[in-house]
Design brief:
By secondary structure, the protein is mainly α. The chain has a domain of 254 residues. The chain contains 19 helices and four strands.
């Protein structure tokens, strides 16, 4: 570990915390439905969308109506994206003349991008046309991110409202989030990336002459526009197969830093939006503090493991940290930070091979995802995931000290706890159930490149990434098979909507309740004690759920490496 590396990590932490407040303020205005700074320009477009679709934005929806609208919208998105991928051969903007892709791969990709997972069992520049990238993937990058933020707004209303029957209007929420937040921010970021050297063109490729005199065709395309929302919306799907390790997607250390900040800014800002909405900004800062604590713990552990190097190399006299699988432009510290940032959120972008991390360092990204990616979390999904754990924490605290389980003025009763347990249990069921299946059937065992604990880690990581809607890959797993395309799609679908539906149910139940002013029987949910309790509950639940499988995978792998044994 180096002083420069720690300086970069601490500066990043300070910057994203500083950016959280203006982002939170912007989203609070959006949440309230108030006039936005861009209202004069985008207001007519917003109203036109409502008139065209026959939506009354002022009409409140109960949680069932909100959930039905959300599910219909996203199921239609899966069908439309599947059709685009299958028909790309006859659609425009296909200078490479790519044909339609395989049924199972198209199904996996459609579910992947609609659920904000962006798992990619294909090479983007060698499989998809510009039309598929723009009208298919990039559009879903916007809509899946907007869906997450809409659900976050819904549960915020559940806590903030009293004796209310509605939790908002899904159609109005997703329209406003897209028009006034994601679209303008992505335009600005895309222009910044173009300035830094990221391509934005409809040309298929450009020719170049190598130093040896050979001619090489280098793929191009509308990269900057997809890159902007890929990071801001915590999507992570790369235009190129190498993702953000590709110099066209990530030209410099500055672009790398901007990408990491854009991944965190909206997830961090939503905690402060929540605090403002419930009338106590300290509540938002407390949630953010617990998240930052977990981020720094993960970065510290992973950085230590990577900087310590490989014992097998050291036994051969090769000193230094583990540089295998690293982008040499960025080095160990930046690669570790990027890996933790993208798996603490639902962004599957990578600048290094996670498969090449030291086993204990690879455990951190895997465990981040298994926690439900609530450390900062995906846009929207991180907030509602951490609020689920906040409900669990106040319930446990109430049992321990005999105080009334309530959170920000809302009593936590049996209905909320049942739905909370469902939301917490579904992702582990997907991860562990599907990983167990893949570990015993022939098509599943044919996937991993490595054998033994490392091969099991490849399987476990894949399903953790799918159910947590992350999309990053450990590497080494041959995922483009009917078995993995189908089972990963199942994990992505239920990992997303199996959590969203209980969350909306909680929002609807809380909205109808009266707000109870804090009294002597209320457990304080701000301050160091609460922050420590919330972080501990998250780690304990995650540890109890996944420690046995982690012991079979990365922990056993670390013991093999320490003993000088190779798989």
């Amino acid at each position: 570990m180096t002083l420069a590396g720690w300086g970069m990590i601490l500066l990043f932490t300070a910057l994203f915390i500083a950016l959280a407040k203006p982002a939170g303020d912007w989203m609070f205005t959006l949440y309230k439905g108030e006039a936005m700074p861009l209202g004069r320009v985008l207001g007519p477009l917003e109203q036109g969308c409502y008139r065209l679709s026959g939506v009354d934005p002022a009409r409140e929806q109960g949680w069932v109506g909100y959930a039905a609208a959300l599910m219909c919208f996203n199921l239609a998105g899966i069908g439309l994206l599947f059709a685009i991928l299958k028909l790309q051969a006859v659609l425009p903007f296909n200078p490479q003349h790519f044909g339609g892709i395989d049924n199972w791969l198209a199904f996996n990709t459609a579910v992947s991008f609609v659920t904000n997972t962006n798992w990619q069992n294909y090479g983007g520049e060698s499989t998809l046309s510009n039309f598929s990238q723009m009208a298919g993937l990039t559009v879903q990058n916007f809509l899946s991110a907007a869906t997450g933020i809409a659900v976050a707004f819904a549960i915020i209303r559940g806590f903030a409202r009293a004796s209310a029957q509605g939790i908002g209007n899904f159609w109005a929420d997703i329209t406003r989030v897209t028009l006034y937040l994601l679209l303008p921010a992505s335009i600005v970021l895309a222009l910044v990336y173009v300035l830094l050297g990221v391509p934005q063109t409809l040309d298929a490729s450009v020719g170049a002459t190598t130093l040896e005199g050979a001619r090489q065709s280098i793929a191009l395309g509308p990269v900057a526009s997809q890159l902007a929302i890929k990071m801001l919306g915590t999507n992570g799907g790369g235009f190129f197969n190498a993702n953000s390790a590709h110099p066209f997607e990530n030209p410099s250390a500055l672009s790398n830093y901007i990408q990491m900040l854009s991944i965190f800014v909206l997830g961090a800002g939503l905690t402060l939006t929540f605090g403002k909405a419930v009338g106590n900004v300290k509540q938002g800062w407390s949630l953010l503090a617990a998240m930052v604590l977990l981020v720094l713990a993960g970065v510290t552990f992973a950085y230590w493991a990577e900087a310590a190097g490989n014992p097998i190399h050291q036994a051969l006299g090769i000193a230094g940290g583990n540089m295998e699988g690293k982008e040499v432009r960025f080095g160990i510290a930046a690669t570790v930070l990027f890996a933790v940032v993208t798996t603490a959120t639902s962004c599957g972008a990578v600048i290094g091979m996670h498969d090449s991390l030291m086993p204990l360092a690879g455990l951190v990204p895997m465990f981040n995802m298994q926690l439900g990616e609530l450390v900062i979390g995906g846009v929207g999904s991180g907030l509602y995931a951490v609020l689920i754990y906040a409900i669990l924490a106040v319930f446990i605290a109430g049992l321990m000290v005999g105080r009334t389980p309530e959170y920000v003025g809302k009593k936590i009763e049996s209905r909320e706890m049942k739905l909370t347990v469902i939301a917490i249990v579904i992702p582990p069921l997907c991860i562990l159930g599907l990983a167990a299946l893949a570990s015993v059937v022939g098509p599943g065992l044919a996937g991993p490149l490595a054998k033994g604990p490392h091969g099991f880690s490849e399987i476990l990581y894949a399903y953790s990434s799918a159910a947590a809607n992350n999309g990053s890959a450990f590497g080494g797993l041959s995922g483009n098979t009917p078995f993995y395309n189908a089972t990963l799609a199942i994990g992505m679908f239920f990992g997303r909507f199996g959590v969203i539906l209980p969350v909306l149910g909680i929002a609807g139940g809380l909205a109808v309740k009266r707000r109870v002013p804090p009294g002597p029987g209320s457990f304080p949910t701000t301050g160091p004690l609460w922050i420590g309790l919330l972080a501990a509950i998250i780690l304990i639940v995650g540890g109890l759920t996944f420690l046995p499988t982690l012991a079979l995978g990365p922990i056993a792998d670390q013991f093999q490496v320490a003993a000088g044994t190779l798989n």
